[in-house]
Amino acid sequence: MKLVIQRVSEASVKVDGNVIGSIGKGLLVLLGVGEDDTKAMVDKYVDKLVKLRIFEDENGKTNLSVSDVGGDIMVVSQFTLYADCKKGNRPSFIGAGSPALAEELYEYFKARVKSIYGKVECGEFGADMKVSLVNDGPFTVLWDSREW
Fold first, then answer.
1. What span, in angstroms and rounded, lies between the C-alpha atoms of 44 and 111?
2. Nearest to 83 by CA among 92, 72, 74, 70
3. Cα distance between residue 22 and residue 137, in whole Å
4. Is the dihedral of CA 13, 77, 81, 144 positive or negative?
5. Could you tell me the end-to-end alpha-carbon distance of the chain, in angstroms, rounded to an integer?
6. Which residue ranges make up each domain of the chain?
7. Which pTM was predicted?
8. Distance between CA atoms of 95 and 87, rounded to whole angstroms?
9. Contact between 7 and 137 (Cβ < 8 Å)
10. CA 127 → CA 55, 79, 130, distances in Å?
11. Of 26, 37, 65, 135, which has the fewest CB atoms closer than 10 Å, so is most exposed?
12. How far apart are CA 81 and CA 73, in angstroms?
């Protein structure tokens, strides 16, 4: 599993020109599912995500989590996080999970965020999405299950 976590002041996602999700201050999570990923990994990542201290406190130190600042969370599926560009000029996505597995774990990820955090905005799995964001900082964190 790969995640790109961006601290944002706002983010939105459109499908067919219609906004299907938007957030203010919070986290935009781009989620890529790999072939060996499991629900146990999702549980671990979501638990850490809501506790991740990447928001500044009154002293300018990154000591606050999204819940501490009352922020929002948006999750967008992005299989292209598994792009392998080692050979040639066209990325290979052979390491990405099957569409069935990816959708199952994406839906599970969203449900876990909602059950733990209470709210989540989302993209649409498999859709041609237009994602807009204002990265706050910029502050971006990369997680890769192969490194955990």
1. 14
2. 92
3. 19
4. positive
5. 10
6. 2-147
7. 0.95
8. 14
9. yes
10. 31, 12, 9
11. 135
12. 19
Within 2-138, where are the H helices? 39-51, 99-117
Over residues 33-60, the pLDDT tens digits come to: 999 999 999 999 999 999 999 999 999 9
**Rounded-to-integer distance, Cα 123 and Cα 131, Å:** 9
Place of tokens 């986290």: 27
For the record, the structure tokens of 52 come out as: 């991740």
Tell me the catalytic residues.
Answer: 78-80
User: At what angle are helices 39-51 and 99-117 packed, to 10 degrees?
Assistant: 40
Top CATH class of 2-147 equals alpha beta
Model pLDDT for residues 87-145, shown as the tens digit of each residue: 999 999 989 999 999 999 999 999 999 999 998 999 999 999 999 999 999 999 999 99
